Amino acid sequence: MIGEPEPNISIEEMQQKIASMKTTQELVDAYVIACYKYKFFEDAEYDYEEDTEEYEKACSATDAWSEIMDRLEEKVRETAASEGLFDPIPSDETIE
Fold it and tell me: Other CB atoms closer than 10 Å to residue 71's CB: what's the count?
């Protein structure tokens, strides 16, 4: 990958974009961006001493991007299943 995808996108902007995404491809593309952001901030945590303001900001950003990734994973599964790309994953209730 050459350069950072969507270098200036904020967590709030990504959340807004996700809300309007309809296809698996759009969601997967967003997941790649969220994953990159997550790794960037996770790595930044090691640049600061624990209990500093910078460290806390990096940890907060890491957590926020992780939540976005989790949300996107769920939406990808649902959308891909609705598009017929794979069978839906059974819920715990249907597994006997």
Answer: 17
Q: Is the dihedral of CA 15, 18, 69, 42 positive or negative?
A: negative
Task: Tell me: pLDDT of 28 over 90.
Answer: yes
Give Cα 36 distance to the centre of its chain. 9
Please state the separation of Cα 47 from the chain's center in Å.
22
Predicted confidence (pLDDT) at residue 1 exceeds the cutoff of 50: no
Residues 46-62 pLDDT 10s? 889 999 999 999 999 99
The H or E element spanning position 30 is helix 24-45
Angle, to 10 degrees, between the axis of helix 11-20 and the axis of helix 53-82? 10
Of 7-11, 35-39, 74-78, the range with the lowest mean pLDDT is 7-11
Token pair recorded at residue 68: 């976005």
CA atoms of 35 and 77, how far apart (whole Å): 17
Q: Look at the chain and count its residues.
A: 96
